[in-house]
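tmp note - Acetylglutamate kinase
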Amino acid sequence: MAVSGLSDFKGRWFVVKIGGELASDKPKLAASVGAAVRAFLDAGVRVAVIHGGGPQATELTQKLGLTPKMVGGRRVTDEATLEVMKMTLAGQVSVDVAAAFRIAGVPAVCTTGVSAGLVNARKRPAKVITGAGPDPIDLGLVGDVSEVNTALFEKLSEAGVVPVLGSLSGDAQGNVFNINADTVATRVAAKLKAAKLFLVSNVPGVLANKDDPSTRLPTLTPAEAKEKIASGVIQGGMIPKVEESLAMLEEGIEAIHIVGISPVNALLGEAEKAGSFGTAFLRG
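out:
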């Protein structure tokens, strides 16, 4: 049954990004994100899902005797780390998300951006990273999205399935790149001209005090968000998430929502009323 309010978005795209930390609890993922995606589909909304796999990758890296390296909230990807990301994103997390979505009755096809060139990329050059000092940083085998095959996303939707992508991408020469899942989600949402992009994790939005969920900021304009970064309210891994969000507002996404997985109806409630359960970035 369609949920009141969502029918206004019939035929439009919603893009949902899932943090890797959510995939390990399949019943909870099914009851929250899976149920919301099912409601979106029932309302005639087209849905694409992007997932990360950071915690799983870090755990496997350590099991293999390697040392994860993070700079400014972003993972440095050498050859060994890329192999770990393939195993986690295209393997463990992909299967766990597919299983959770089956519980929720969501017809998901789980793959990566490498498949059929769904998301193409080129190697990212060294650049200055917010929070990592003044010098350019080379993140290794990390890519920048160069193209999104929107026609193929449309065909998958028309076939009645939800494309679910782990955040690996590649090029026509067979190179594979690791990309921050928030980056992939924002680029896909922009190219699909999505009505809404949801960044879903264990974090219930942007917090004025990162240790106090009651300090959630319901809505932010670009100017307000930039001020929060400059003043240090927004910090760490939240910085790239917010920066990507602001950049994509300029490219056509109508609203971007950072929302947690709790309570169980948080994603669905945020879809119906911006700022009710997360932080909504509005063009202002």
